[in-house]
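Give me the fold.
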Amino acid sequence: MSYPAFGGANGWPATLVGNSSVAGGPAIAHLCVRHLPTAPVTTNEQIWLYNQSLDYLQGNGVPIDAEQSFALNAKAAREGYREAVLAMGWYYLGGVGVPQDNEKAKTWYRKSARHGEPKAMFSLGRISYDERDYLDSFRWFSRAAEAGHVRSLYWVGKHHWFGRGIPQDKKEAMRLFHLAAGKKVKAARRVLKFLSRRRYDKTAA
């Protein structure tokens, strides 16, 4: 099971940082990753590696190859490219081009979270929630919400509503649901619609 850590269709990265195949790009374009230089690379080369990983993931000018995509992204991540560090969690969580491994996914998401990435915090919250570690989940969702991740507002509200990991507080949950709905979070809007209908049904009865 995967939880997209970054935007875009089907959880893929939303955009390319640059064009990996433009003239003047690295001369190693489209070579197998085992032929990539082992010496430290420049920021532009990190960006190129990341973009190449997206090309192989989506089949942009090259055959789709999840393993090659992962290997290229891993190289960029090891060099410290932050988008690639975030993406490593996604690859491991979904088992894309690499065996699925929740622990490795969490390790990379934590590295990304230390850089202040709210999407990594959100993903850590989702993993902990599914593992029923609700206190840890609440902490990660709260951090993500404080960092501006609007979907996390709904999840913090969900913790308050059900009292998962924290004392139940439906008033605070409703405040957060309304706040998230105001920021166009679909799940929050669905919950509010459902709760409003249920109240109406009880009144009508």
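Residues 186-204 form the longest helix (19 residues).
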